[in-house]
C-alpha cells in the first residue's frame, strides 16, 4: 500500500494543465508515476513511436509533497507507484481556467491525493481545487494500475545535438502548414534545414493531395548550439514536434535535441522550474518506397540498386513511419532534380517492381524495461544493448491490448496510403504489403518479368480496393516532368 | 380578421430581445403568448424541462395589444397566469393570445441586425476605437443599436407573425407561419420551497462548466443547512466531480434551506441554460418538495432587467423518465 499527497499552487496547477494538454496530443492515456523525489506524467502513443515524459521535482514544483510506500522492500528498489488515467479525465480536473476574466473561479491551491489501498476496491485519485470565496471543487478520478513504460535513450549514442530557444523554434514551425505530417531535419553547409513533407493521399484514385514540401534553411547562429553533422537526415512527426515546441514555448525555455541517424530515436529535452521534460520520438527509416519520393525523383527510369528491404518477421508493426529516405533529396527535388540523383539512387528502391513495402520496427519497442523507466536509468544502459530500431519491447500487459484499440486512428492518420492485405498472412509473405498501382503502366511489362509475377497478379486482383492505391507514376510524371 | 391587428409592436432593441431569445434557442419551436404586459416565449424539452423568456413591453418603443378582439376560447384559462406567474393577481384583467412559432426561424430573422451588431461590437470594438478614435465607442454602439428598427405584427389567430426590420432605407419583411398553441402546462413550484438560493450566475456557470468536463449524464444538486451547504455533483465513467459552495455572504447572497435536500436532474437539460448563465448577472435557484427546480436568471441589458426562467422536473432513479 502506498499513499501520495501533494499540493500545487494555482500557477503550478496551470502548468499541469499545460503538461496534460501537451501529453494528450500523444495518447488518450496519461501515465503517472510517483516516487519519493519526483512525480512523472508520461504518455506513449498508440504506435509506440513517440513518448513524452515530464518529471516534476518534489521539492521545487510542489508546495508540499509526500509519498509513502508501506510494505515495499526499499533495499531492492525504490518505492514507486504507477497508474494510468484517461487524459481527458485529468484534463477536466486541470482544465484551463481563465481566473482573471471573471474572478469567480480563481484557484487558491490544488490538493491531490491518492491511496493505493488493497482493502478498497475502487481506485480513485482525489483532486481538490480550493477556490476563493469558499468554493471547493472535488474530482475523484478513476485510475488503472499499470506498469509504466519509458524509452531508454542513450545520449552518448547521439552525436548530433542542437539547442534553441523554444520560442524561436515555434516561429520556425509556423512556416509549416497544418496538414504537413513529417519534419525532416538536416544540416547543410552549416545551415540548419527543416523540411515539412506529407505523404497523404485522399483515396486511391487521386494523386497526392499535398505534395508540398516546405523547407526553411536557417543560419545556425540563431541556435544556442548546433552540433549536427552535415548530411545527416532525420525525419520525425511534425505534429509531435509541434506539440512539444508549443509546450516548451509556453514555458519560454530552451530545448535541446539529441539524435544519431535515421531510424534511431530522436530526443527533445527541456527543463523549467522543477520540471524536466523529455520527449523521445522515433525517426522514420530509410527504406523508401515512398510514392512522393518516387514520383518526384523518377527522372531517370533506371531502377537503382537500392538496399534490400528488411523483412520483419511476423506481422509487421503498424508503425507510424512513412518510409522515407533523405530529406535533402526531397527538398531539393523541387528545385533541382539533377542534384538529387546521386543521393537518390543510393537508396531508391525501384518502383518498377511489384513493390514489397514493409515497415521497419519503427516503434520505440525493443526492450522491456519496466523498472528503468526513469530518466536516470537511461544512461545506465550499455550502448551494446541498444537495438538499432527501437528502445522498447512491447510490454506484456493489457496495456498493450488496449493500445491496439486506438491503433486504427493513428494508422489512418499516418498511413492512408497503405492498407493491410488480410490475405497476406495466408501466403508466404506474412509481413509484406503489396502496394497496388505502384507500377506505371508503361513499364509494367518489362519490369514485371521478375519473381512472383503471377503471385502479384493474383493478389492485385484479390485485393481490389483493399489496398489503397497510390498515384500512378505515369500520372505523377505528367505533373512533375515539365 | 380586420384591422387593427391584434398585436403590433415596434422596437429598436432587437439586440436585447435577441440575446434573451437565444437563451432558449436550443429548441426549434417556441410557444408565444402575447398580453398587454409583454411577450412570453416558452420552450419545452422532453416534457421535463421548460424555458421561459418574458420580453417586457418596456423593450418596445411602441406596443399595442388588442387582446380582447380575440374571441376564440382559450383552452386553458390558467395558462395565462402560468406563463407569467407574477401577474397572478391581476392576470384575469386581460386575456392574451398564444400561438406556436419556429424559434430558429425567428432567431434567424432577428439576426439580420442583431448578430451583426453583436459581432461587430465584440470583434471590432478595439479596432474601431483605435482606428476611429474620434468617435467615442459608447456613442458608436448606441448609434448602431438605434439604427435598426423592428416591427412585430400579428393580425390574429390563423395569421402569420410578421417581422419587419428596417435599417436606413432598407426594409426586410419576414413572415413566419404560426401554429396552433400547444397545451403546455407549466411546472409550478409548491410552497413552501425546500431551497432558495440566490447567487451570481457566474458561479453557477463556472460550476456547470467544471462538471461538464467529465461529460456526465446526471447532475445531483444537494443543499443542506450545514456543511456542505450547496453542492453540484456528477458521476461519470471516469470518476466523479463535485463543486461545493460554502455559505458565505459573498458567495450565496440568499441561502434558505431548512432541511437537507438532494435532487437529480438530467445534465444536458441543465446545460441548456448555460447561455443564460453566461450572460446573466444573478440566478435564483429554487426547489420544492417534489423536486421541481427553477433556475431564474436576471439578465440586465441596457439597464432593462429581464428574466429567463428554467424549470426542471427531477430525474427519478427508480422509475425511468420516459423522455
Q: What is the mean pLDDT of chain B? A: 81
**Gyration radius of chain B, rounded:** 21 Å
Element pattern of chain B in H and E: EHEEEEHEHHEEEEEHEEEEEHHEEE
Residue windows where pLDDT falls under 50 for at least 5 positions of chain A: 287-362, 365-469
Identify the CATH class of the largest domain in chain B: Alpha Beta
Count of helical segments of chain B? 7
In the CATH hierarchy, the third-tier topology of one domain in chain A is known as Proliferating Cell Nuclear Antigen
- Round the Cα radius of gyration of chain A to an integer and report it: 24 Å
Question: Mean pLDDT across all residues of chain A, rounded?
Answer: 68
| Oligomeric composition of the shown chains | heterodimer
Named CATH topology of the largest domain in chain B: Proliferating Cell Nuclear Antigen
Total domain modules of chain B: 2
What's the total count of β strands of chain B?
A: 19
> Helix fraction of chain B?
10-25%
CATH architecture of the largest domain in chain B: Box
Shape of chain B: elongated
Assigned CATH architecture of one domain in chain A: Box
Give the count of helical stretches of chain A. Answer: 14
The gross shape of chain A turns out to be globular
Family (chain B): Belongs to the rad1 family.
Keywords (chain B): DNA damage, DNA repair, Nucleus
GO biological process, one term (chain B): DNA damage checkpoint signaling
Protein name (chain B): Repair protein Rad1/Rec1/Rad17
Amino acid at each position: 500500500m502506498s499513499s501520495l499527497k501533494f499540493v500545487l499552487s494555482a500557477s503550478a496547477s496551470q502548468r499541469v494543465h499545460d503538461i496534460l494538454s501537451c501529453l494528450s496530443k500523444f495518447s488518450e492515456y496519461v501515465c503517472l508515476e510517483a516516487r519519493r523525489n519526483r512525480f512523472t506524467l508520461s504518455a506513449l502513443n498508440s504506435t509506440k513511436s513517440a513518448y513524452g515524459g515530464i518529471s516534476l521535482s518534489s521539492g521545487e514544483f510542489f508546495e508540499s509533497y509526500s509519498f509513502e510506500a508501506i510494505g515495499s522492500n526499499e533495499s531492492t528498489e525504490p518505492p514507486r507507484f504507477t497508474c494510468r488515467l484517461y487524459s481527458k479525465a485529468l484534463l477536466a480536473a486541470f482544465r484551463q481556467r481563465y481566473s482573471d476574466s471573471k474572478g469567480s473561479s480563481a484557484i487558491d491551491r490544488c490538493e491531490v491525493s491518492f491511496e493505493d489501498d488493497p482493502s478498497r476496491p475502487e481506485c480513485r485519485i482525489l483532486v481538490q481545487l480550493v477556490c476563493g470565496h469558499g468554493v471547493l471543487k472535488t474530482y475523484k478520478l478513476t485510475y488503472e494500475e499499470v506498469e509504466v513504460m519509458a524509452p531508454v535513450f542513450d545520449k552518448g549514442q547521439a552525436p548530433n545535438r542542437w539547442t534553441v530557444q523554444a520560442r524561436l523554434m515555434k516561429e520556425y514551425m509556423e512556416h509549416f502548414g497544418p496538414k504537413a505530417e513529417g519534419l525532416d531535419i538536416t544540416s547543410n553547409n552549416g545551415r540548419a534545414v527543416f523540411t515539412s513533407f506529407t505523404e497523404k493521399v485522399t483515396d486511391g484514385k487521386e494523386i497526392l493531395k499535398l505534395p508540398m514540401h516546405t523547407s526553411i534553411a536557417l543560419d545556425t547562429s540563431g541556435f544556442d548550439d548546433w552540433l549536427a553533422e552535415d548530411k545527416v537526415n532525420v525525419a520525425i512527426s511534425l505534429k509531435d514536434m509541434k506539440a512539444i515546441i508549443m509546450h516548451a514555448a509556453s514555458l519560454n525555455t530552451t530545448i535541446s535535441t539529441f539524435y544519431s541517424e535515421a531510424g534511431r530515436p530522436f530526443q527533445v529535452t527541456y527543463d523549467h522550474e522543477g520540471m524536466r521534460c523529455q520527449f523521445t520520438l522515433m525517426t522514420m527509416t530509410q527504406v523508401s518506397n515512398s510514392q512522393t519520393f518516387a514520383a518526384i525523383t523518377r527522372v531517370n527510369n533506371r531502377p537503382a540498386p537500392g538496399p534490400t528491404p528488411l523483412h520483419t518477421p511476423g506481422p509487421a508493426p503498424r508503425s507510424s513511419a512513412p518510409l522515407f529516405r533523405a530529406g535533402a533529396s526531397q527538398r531539393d527535388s523541387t528545385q533541382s532534380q539533377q542534384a538529387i540523383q546521386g543521393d537518390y539512387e543510393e537508396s531508391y528502391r525501384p518502383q518498377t517492381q511489384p513493390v514489397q513495402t514493409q515497415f521497419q520496427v519503427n516503434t520505440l519497442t525493443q526492450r522491456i524495461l519496466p523498472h528503468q523507466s526513469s530518466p536516470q536509468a537511461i544512461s545506465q544502459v550499455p550502448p551494446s544493448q541498444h537495438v538499432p530500431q527501437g528502445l522498447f519491447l512491447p510490454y506484456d500487459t493489457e496495456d498493450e491490448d488496449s493500445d491496439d484499440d486506438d491503433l486504427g486512428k493513428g494508422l489512418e492518420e499516418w498511413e492512408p496510403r497503405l492498407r493491410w492485405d488480410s490475405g497476406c498472412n495466408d501466403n508466404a509473405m506474412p509481413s509484406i504489403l503489396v502496394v497496388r498501382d505502384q507500377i506505371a503502366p508503361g513499364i509494367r511489362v518489362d519490369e514485371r518479368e521478375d519473381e512472383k509475377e503471377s503471385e502479384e497478379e493474383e493478389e492485385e486482383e484479390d485485393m481490389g480496393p483493399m489496398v489503397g492505391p497510390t498515384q500512378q507514376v505515369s500520372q505523377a510524371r505528367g505533373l512533375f516532368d515539365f | 380578421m380586420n384591422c387593427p391587428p391584434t398585436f403590433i409592436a415596434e422596437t429598436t432593441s432587437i439586440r436585447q430581445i435577441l440575446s434573451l431569445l437565444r437563451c432558449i434557442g436550443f429548441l426549434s419551436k417556441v410557444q408565444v403568448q402575447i398580453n398587454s404586459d409583454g411577450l412570453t416565449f416558452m420552450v419545452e424539452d422532453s416534457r421535463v424541462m421548460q424555458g421561459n423568456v418574458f420580453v417586457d413591453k418596456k423593450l418596445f418603443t411602441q406596443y399595442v395589444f388588442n387582446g380582447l378582439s380575440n374571441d376564440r376560447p382559450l383552452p386553458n384559462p390558467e395558462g395565462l397566469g402560468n406563463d407569467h406567474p407574477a401577474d397572478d393577481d391581476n392576470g384575469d384583467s386581460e386575456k392574451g393570445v398564444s400561438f406556436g412559432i419556429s424559434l430558429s426561424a425567428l432567431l434567424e430573422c432577428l439576426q439580420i441586425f442583431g448578430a451583426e451588431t453583436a459581432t461587430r461590437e465584440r470583434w471590432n470594438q478595439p479596432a474601431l476605437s483605435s482606428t476611429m478614435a474620434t468617435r467615442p465607442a459608447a456613442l458608436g454602439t448606441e448609434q448602431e443599436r438605434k439604427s435598426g428598427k423592428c416591427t412585430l405584427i400579428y393580425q390574429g389567430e390563423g395569421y402569420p407573425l410578421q417581422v419587419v426590420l428596417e435599417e436606413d432605407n432598407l426594409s426586410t419583411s419576414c413572415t413566419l407561419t404560426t401554429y396552433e398553441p400547444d397545451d403546455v402546462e407549466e411546472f409550478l413550484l409548491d410552497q413552501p420551497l425546500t431551497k432558495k438560493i440566490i447567487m451570481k450566475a457566474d458561479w453557477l456557470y463556472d460550476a456547470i462548466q467544471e462538471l461538464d468536463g467529465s461529460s456526465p449524464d446526471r447532475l445531483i444538486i444537494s443543499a443542506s443547512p450545514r456543511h456542505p451547504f450547496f453542492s453540484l455533483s456528477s458521476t461519470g465513467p471516469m470518476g466523479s466531480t463535485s463543486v461545493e459552495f460554502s455559505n458565505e455572504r459573498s458567495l450565496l447572497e440568499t441561502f434558505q434551506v431548512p432541511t437537507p435536500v438532494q435532487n437529480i436532474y438530467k445534465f444536458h437539460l441543465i446545460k441548456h441554460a448555460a447561455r443564460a448563465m453566461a450572460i446573466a448577472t444573478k440566478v435564483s435557484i429554487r426547489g420544492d418538495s417534489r423536486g421541481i427546480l427553477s433556475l431564474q436568471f436576471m439578465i440586465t441589458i441596457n439597464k432593462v432587467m429581464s428574466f429567463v426562467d428554467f424549470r426542471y422536473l427531477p430525474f427519478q432513479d427508480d422509475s425511468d423518465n420516459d423522455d
